[in-house]
Amino acid sequence: MSDRLGLVVKFTIKEGHEEAFDELVSGTLPGIRDHEPDTLIYACHRLPNSPRARLFYELYRDQAAFDAHEQQPHVRRFLAEREQHLEGVAVDRLTLVDGKGIPASGS
What we know:
Blueprint: E1 5-13, H1 18-35, E2 39-47, E3 50-60, H2 63-71, H3 73-82, E4 86-95
Antiparallel strand pairs: 1-3, 1-4, 2-3
């Protein structure tokens, strides 16, 4: 079994806040790309049939990587500012069994 930790997060955005939420995400991602080598995947998706929904897929090297992610200034800002744009949040925590294109534990 892998030490990888994943999340699937579905955000429901308040009507009229879609662009502002997407801008907040776009402003957060450079910090994740540049300062979080153990955040392996952090992707935000639109759902074609749900224009006010965003689905995030996040994959971390391990629990420590997720904990470090949550403490980053760019993430703290995102967590604080997102609330004004949201109607709802649903989070599913994943434990990776195996997958393609995913470095093995310890890599």
